[in-house]
Amino acid sequence: MVKILRWLVLALLLYLGLTEGIPWVREQIGGVTRDSLRGRDLPSNEGPLRCVHLAEDASASIGVQVRYLAATPGDPVAWEQASVPINNLIRDAEFACACPGAACENARQALAGMDELVRSLDGIMGGRATTGLDLARQQEEINTLLGRARAHADRGPQDPNR
Predict the structure, then answer these.
(1) If we measure between CA atoms, which residue out of 115, 120, 97, 109 comes closest to residue 46?
(2) Separation in Å, CA 92 to CA 36, 97, 99, 134, 154
(3) Closest Cα partner for 90 from 65, 122, 113?
(4) Which CATH architecture has domain 46-155?
(5) pLDDT the model gives residue 149
């Protein structure tokens, strides 16, 4: 009974840390969160910048969760709780990335990679996959695509390929 209670408390703390703690820390250090983008005045290249910001935020959330879960024993319940906000961030970014141009296209490709990475992690945490997954390669591809998206978005509206 005590062991179950400990796990419940740990799960609650993890959930609160993910849903409240991480966004608060990002906001304190000047990071971009979904809430910080709402109502924010963005420059004329708003679509690509918003898209790239949200895609980078989703990628950062995946990285935080992977590092946390790698430091703890495989806990499918913890991963399931962590994957819900990650999937929400990915969906928000996909919605924002409906814009035209190279920045949004690269960000959409990165988001597709994030979906694949989350599915791979679901398989690992659910015991359906244990080998043959190259998570580091997947993350590197995501980072490369996000770097390209950032470069196109930062060029601004004067770039026809943005």
Answers:
(1) 97
(2) 13, 9, 13, 26, 21
(3) 113
(4) Up-down Bundle (1.20)
(5) 92
